[in-house]
Amino acid sequence: MKRYGLFINGKWIEATTDERFEVTNPATGEIVGNCADGGEADVERAITAAHEAFPAWSNQTAKERAEILRRAYELMIAHKDELGEIMTLEQGKPILEAKGEIQYAADFVEWSGEEAKRIYGETIPASATDKRIWVHKQPVGVAAAITPWNFPASMITRKIAPALAAGCTVVIKPAQQTPLTACRIVELFHEAGVPKGVINLITSTHASTVGEALLKDERVRKVGFTGSTAIGKVLMKQAADTMKKISLELGGHAPFIVFADADLDRAVDEVLSSKFRNAGQTCVCANRIYVEQSIGQAFAERLAQKTKELKVGNGMEEGVAIGPLIDSAAADKVEGQVKDAVNKGAKVMTGGHRHTKVGKHPGQKAHFFEPTVLLDVTDEMEVMREETFGPVAPIQYFSSEEEAIAKANHSRYGLAAYFYTENLARAIRVSEKLEFGIVGVNDGTPSTAQAPFGGFKESGLGREGGKYGVEEYLETKYISVRIQ
């Protein structure tokens, strides 16, 4: 069982209250670790450490910071199996998925370290002969990273790696359900040579208290958050009081459109990988599946058949494709959406119920839900209006390209969208008309470290990944010099 404190100023310490909380395996209900339960006073200590470490860290050369991040990347890869196992134990996703996430998380560290050496300024022609105009990029200062439970590694490195590359220092608040992965990653960064105070970690069950403390402190100049739109709006309001820079990667309700000219087998496979990865607990997974009428029945039958073949179970077991949902509330939400759809006329082609698996302890109810395919869904059903965050694939038919685009865009979210077609002209038309920050054309898994990740509308602000992610942690300074 893993046991961690708070990581502040290069040391593992107890919370000021000496309180701790337990971390449980959602597949079994077993306790797999415990962590210090930090509060407002601990946040203040972490911010102070980061604030005091900022001058020296930001003064290091880009090459020096890049070398440390390179070592952190190599350590994450060397410990990929260990990190993957920790993640599966506390989060539940299948072990192969967990190890894949560690690679993805490490990619952000590698890319950001390399990008540190490509943070360029600019010289602008002046309007007078005795002046020179320079544009200089410099780090914003202390940055806070508030991360969710569904991707315990990559949502951290996607924030702290560009921050560190830019010269910022950081305070991390991971989700209380999955703090162990974060703790081990911080250990590896420290081992890689990150100086004391540059990375600080607050684990806590008091999310609102910690969040408010980070947002109200004027020494924190940047906040990166991944989570629900509702919480994102609260943080945005709080950030306004000190005019912090803020990046918000919020909810999604991704459409997946399949046109009649698509490669049907490939489209089915991509829906499977998009929808059921992490048991549907991803902000970019296919949530609304729109299929052209003429191929609708064939598509639905193939998807239902392949969905039936997905093995559900403990993520540590061989061949498991669908792990547990994170907790009973998550399973309740999925169950409620399926019941709502069925009551309003949807047909269950496969699944539709909580899984019969239970935890190891007598009376312990695990949080599995059968991978589900629904047909004959309508816009009035909750599953088509709100993010599911579970293994449910609702299918609706459409008759024209215009109808498909209208249905896809009819959402307050605009994070990711996907569509399948073999028609090049349609690919260009539809990709330009979809109101989403990420569009996968014949690609159900477009996320990569070097590309911008973020959404339109209520799916957030700013971008993470590639040079765009680093820019979020930089200020632009205009310097005008008179030379005579």
Structure, explained:
- The protein is an alpha/beta fold.
- It has two domains: 2-250 and 459-482, Aldehyde Dehydrogenase, Chain A, domain 1 (3-Layer(aba) Sandwich), CATH 3.40.605.10; 254-448, Aldehyde Dehydrogenase, Chain A, domain 2, CATH 3.40.309.
- It is 38% helix and 22% strand.
- Helix 1 crosses helix 7 (207-216), helix 2 (62-78) runs antiparallel to helix 5 and helix 3 (80-91) crosses helix 4 (95-115).
- The mean pLDDT is 96.
Tell me the name of the CATH class of the largest domain.
Alpha Beta
The structural class is: alpha/beta
Contiguous runs where pLDDT drops below 50 for at least 5 residues: none
| Overall CATH architecture of the largest domain | 3-Layer(aba) Sandwich
Compute the CA-based radius of gyration: 23 Å
Biggest β-sheet strands, sense, barrel? 7 strands, mixed
The third-level CATH topology of the largest domain is Aldehyde Dehydrogenase, Chain A, domain 1
Assign a percent range to the helix content: 25-40%
The beta-strand count equals: 23
User: What would the average pLDDT be, to the nearest integer?
Assistant: 96
* Gap from first CA to last CA: 69 Å
Strand content: 15-25%
Number of helical regions? 14
Family: Belongs to the aldehyde dehydrogenase family.
Keywords: Oxidoreductase
Protein name: Succinate-semialdehyde dehydrogenase / glutarate-semialdehyde dehydrogenase
GO molecular function, one term: succinate-semialdehyde dehydrogenase (NAD+) activity
